[in-house]
User: What shape does this take?
Amino acid sequence: MVATDVASRGLDFRHVSHVINYDFPNGCDAYTHRTGRTARMGGKGVAITFFSRRDFSTLKTLIKANRIDPVWLGPKPDLAKARRPRRSTGGYRGRRKPRGR
Assistant: This one.
C-alpha cells in the first residue's frame, strides 16, 4: 500500500509489518502517527525513514523525543552539528528569466 499522511490517522490496518517514510515527516507527531500503523496490538514492526541534511534538526529531536535507537544504513550522520532549518520564503528568489521571453 502507498498512502499519504491521511492513512496515518484514524485508519486501523492490521498486519502491517513495515512503514517506509519516503518523504520525511513534518515533525515528531507525524512520525509517531505514520509509524504507528506498524507493530499494532503488541506486534513487531519496522519503520524506515529517508532523510536529507535539511532534516537533521528534526531527526535529532525525533530520535530523542521517541527514544529511538536508530540503525543507520550507511554512514552515521553527525547530528551534533544539526541546526534549525532556515525558514522558507515560499517562492523562488533566483534571477531566472520567465519562459517565452
